[in-house]
# Entry
Amino acid sequence: MRPSPASALKLLNQRVIDCRLCPRLVAHREQIARDKRRAYLNWTYWGRPVPSFGDMAARLLLIGLAPGAHGANRTGRMFTGDRSGDFLYRALFETGFASQPQSVAKDDGLTLTDAYITAPVRCAPPDNKPQRDEILRCRPYFEQELALLRNVKVIVPLGGIALDAYLCILQDKNLIASRSAFRFGHGVEFETHTGGPRLLCCYHPSQQNTSTGRLTARMLTEIFERARAMIESSQTPVRTHLAHHDRP
Ligand code: SF4
# Structure
């Protein structure tokens, strides 16, 4: 008997956690976990691939980039334990998608309702920059997840790399002819293919963006307010229509 989507997602997350396919990233994530940051010397760093997080029946899907070295790579939960996460979860809380505004540790009680967070790369990359081959290697996890998240109506890619990672999958499935028709811009919204989730682009809540004012708290909250309105206004159930591909 095939497992339910929720069970399959849990199994997938377990496979992610055990993954060691990218030598550079495995070495980096484990080195960070050994060296630690002075402020976190008492922590046992996670130091492994970070599984996705949230409500498996979500209608809103957030796509990040990769775990932060001393955030998710330390705590083991996406966007948890660094300033990017502080920014993101506060906005999700204010718009009713998160149960609390802070996300500091895996066991802090935070839950998401109607939202799910994933990333095209699950291991912390040096300088926050994954290489193309690493994105490709991690892609089957992302792709399988998209197939299992059957209620998604709105996708918020957090940054251009997140958008491109998603579009690459659509292009390979012949759901779109080209990626260049969909250009990233904060607040830009589009439909990629008939019956697919709508996309609403958002700057990544990296410190580089938030400390410079490129992305403000208000701008981020407005994105999730819009996402909620888009979800509520969609009339028909929408699926990603992506086939389930097992890792060879
Ligand atoms: Fe595995 Fe993805 Fe981490 Fe590479 S980035 S080691 S494919 S989990």
Q: What stands out?
A: Confidence is low (pLDDT under 50) at residues 236-248.
